[in-house]
Design brief:
The complex is a heterodimer of chains A (about 110) and B (about 170). Chain A contains 3 helices and no strands. Chain A has about 110 residues and is mainly alpha-helical. By secondary structure, chain B is mainly α. Chain B folds into 2 domains: about 40 residues; about 100 residues, no CATH class. In chain B, helix 1 packs antiparallel against helix 2, helix 3 packs antiparallel against helix 6 and helix 4 crosses helix 6. The chains are: A mainly alpha (about 110), B mainly alpha (about 170). At the A-B interface, helix 1, helix 2 and helix 3 of A face helix 1, helix 3, helix 4, strand 2 and strand 3 of B.
Chain lengths: ~110, ~170
Amino acid sequence: MIEIVFLILRDVCLFIGALFVLVGSLGVLRFPDFFSRIHATGITETVGIAFIFAGLIVEVGYSLTSLKLLIILVFVFFTSPTSSHALAKTAIHAGLVPLTHKGGNQPSN
Amino acid sequence: MKSTLALLLFLSIFWLALSGHYSGLLLGLGFASCLWVALIARRMDVVDHGGLPVQKWSLRIFTTFFIYLMWLGKEIVLSSIAVARMILSNGARVRPEVIQLSVEGMNDMEKVIYANSITLTPGTLTVDVDGDWLNVHTVRGDLLEPLKRGDMANRVRRIYNRSGKQL
């Protein structure tokens, strides 16, 4: 009985995670400019990854491997804002101007 | 010295967790490499100024930090759903904005936590840190409302200040 609960929990976690990764990738295609697209990847690298790893941890169970998965998750949560920030800052310093709705420069699809 | 020992302890536990080997030879070799790394870090003078200010650690900071992480997790999920809905709708709701947020009176560690938390939350992104100001880019203005009200900033300040300690 308890195994079925774990199976369902795993599948639900993996499904939600995959859904968020899919939506994030879709956002990279649909959002209008570079900076907005970074926000779309933000979904993938936070909620998407968290749910997928939660599902994997349920699948692996109580072992050293699940601890390693947890450590990878923590590292991703440390490195992903750093890389997003580095990308955005580089773009700003390279002269890319963020699109804003106030400048009459309407985002187009 | 305390920081070096803490680093050594942390590295050893980390090595144990990752390797899964418990024979004498491998334990000895693993500990030797941890010791080597800790000594190099100490000699490079990166131990005491880095992210491990052990002499300020207390159970209270761990508790408040843990509570903060729980709250941040909730915020991340909520704004992820908001951004996901924007992506799945026709895209007309995308209203990028860049604003400046004041981080006056925060120490370096708090600025790091604050700026990283902003970036980690989908929909908001710290583009630049300029003294006491953060340049924050957002994909839609109303996602910034909690930040403008200072909810997150106050919670970051509370991690350390409730215990009366400054980093």
